[in-house]
Specification:
The protein is α+β, with helices and mostly antiparallel strands. It has helices at 2-46, 54-65, 119-130, 206-211, 215-232, 238-245, 257-266, 293-300, and strands spanning 98-104, 107-113, 137-143, 147-150, 184-187, 199-202, 285-291, 315-323. It folds into two domains: 1-48; 54-323, Beta Barrel (Cyclophilin).
Amino acid sequence: MKKIIKALIGLICVVLSLVLAFSFAGCSEKKQEEAPSSAATADEAETTFPVSTDDEAKAIGGLEAMGFDPGTLGIEPNIINDDNPVGFQLEQPKKGDTIALIHTGSGDITLRLFPAQAPKTVTNFVNLAKAGKYNNTTFHRVINDFVIQGGHSGEDPKHPNGISSYGSEFEDEFCDKLFNIRGAVSMANSAKDSNGSQFFINQTSAEKFNSNGGWQQYDDLWENVKKQLNNYRDSNLLQAFIDENGDKFINTAIIPDEVKALYTKNGGNPNLDGVFNAADRGNTVFAQVIGGMETVDKIAKVKVDQNNVPLDTVLINSIEIKTY
């Protein structure tokens, strides 16, 4: 009898040991499953950079398909993702939004600003305007059915695009829902991330866009660029070619139909967009004309010299920042 009792006690001990072992194992596995989720949440909370989109991967994909490594060529796009629909930039501002009035000798031009989609650029523009840095500057480059360009602040030759409110050149901000359609206002630059104070207003009409060949001209441009890239593949001039012709790298193969329709209907200059540029080049769109486009067209028609400088000064008297 004693032997039977001892055997039962031994069996109970074994069972208890197994239960405890499984119990601790289960707790350990649960902790390991929760830890990655907790760490990811902490990282997300600390992130302050714009969220990138698939567009950037698609744009440089044209180079990757040809056997080029964008990273080794200094091409590392970071495109701002926006939830608004294509074409939202043509909508009127909402009550409380910030707008800008450009007072010129030819009339006023009213702009809707996009601080959420181009935060650093809008801040720069607003600060320069409030500080009076645009007062009595000019539209110094005018090309009818293309752009009117102005807003040069400062005389420092080290800042060919004008001096920004930050005191130095600042980076491009390409948004996947802002485009260089007619009436869009963008930063002038001379290279990647070389923004200062100068800006331009796209003036190309829908009629001009379509009579120039519409999207076919940009399809042809992209095909021509790819051929030239192959010619430079093993040349030490490859980087120089990209730097010089980066604005022509518009990868039309990945542009959505709704974006193409936006240009066909409104006009503009899609080769200036950075979001679909395989070389990560382009001009930052930060505002849209919502009033006074007739003034823009009037300025675009002034007589210019061989360098597209108006023969008669086209003055920006001031830029007023207001609440809509």
